[in-house]
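for the recovery benchmark. tokens below, seq after
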């Protein structure tokens, strides 16, 4: 399920990813879902969110998505028309709040609205023929000479099934291929700072055609949760094309 929030602005505003993430986590904390914030780092949060973007009607818009329908409904109830919220140094007035469930039929094509982050751990370098210095703990996948495509797809699909099993509580799930077609768009550098040092974190934008034989519940899960790592920080958010 998705929550679509429309603000009173008709132009883009300056903000950082940390400020947008802080806004989302405040919403979750304010409705009493503290357990999501307090989960161990390696456990999934089961939600994703978009950037602030100008919708077709020209208004600044924001989307939060999750298979936890009650979470989305409770966040929706916490908003009222004309409420004023803060993102970074910006004060925004809410014009409307809507709930939405994406509908689909074959061909099922999704596009990434925010970059996908996939890390290949050092233990898999030899398996995939990736040659890096031994002191490198992982590699952020992106199209590059000598870098195979296979680990990107395998990591994406393995992560989806791992999350889906945790979410449904089912261990015995038939794992079909998820992606049928891949259209690469571009690579984006997503820098972050650690102990005062700037670290490059590449992410990639795509269009994917999904396997129509996948269970409808799994397709909905993929659309709601997003793709890759750090989806609860605003990466790997997807839309139906």
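predicted aa per position
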């Amino acid at each position: 399920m998705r929550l679509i929030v429309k603000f009173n602005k008709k132009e883009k505003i300056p903000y950082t990813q940390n400020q947008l993430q802080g806004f989302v986590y405040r919403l979750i904390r304010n409705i009493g879902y503290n357990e999501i914030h307090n989960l161990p780092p390696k456990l999934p949060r089961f939600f994703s969110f978009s950037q602030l973007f100008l919708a077709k009607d020209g208004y600044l818009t924001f989307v939060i998505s999750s298979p936890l329908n009650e979470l989305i409904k409770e966040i929706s109830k916490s908003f009222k028309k004309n409420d004023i919220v803060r993102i970074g140094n910006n004060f925004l007035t809410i014009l409307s709040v809507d709930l939405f469930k994406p509908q689909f039929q074959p061909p099922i094509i999704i596009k990434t609205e925010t970059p996908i982050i996939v890390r290949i751990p050092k233990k898999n370098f030899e398996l995939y023929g990736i040659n890096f210095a031994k002191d490198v703990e992982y590699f952020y996948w992106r199209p590059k000479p000598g870098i195979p495509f296979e680990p990107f797809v395998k990591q994406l699909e393995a992560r989806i099934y791992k999350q889906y099993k945790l979410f449904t509580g089912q261990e015995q799930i038939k794992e079909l291929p998820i992606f049928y077609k891949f259209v690469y768009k571009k690579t984006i550098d997503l820098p972050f700072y650690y102990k005062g040092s700037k670290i490059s974190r590449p992410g990639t934008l795509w269009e994917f055609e999904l396997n129509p034989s996948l269970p409808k519940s799994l397709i909905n899960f993929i659309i709601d949760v997003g793709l890759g790592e750090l989806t609860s920080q605003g990466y790997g958010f997807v839309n139906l094309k």
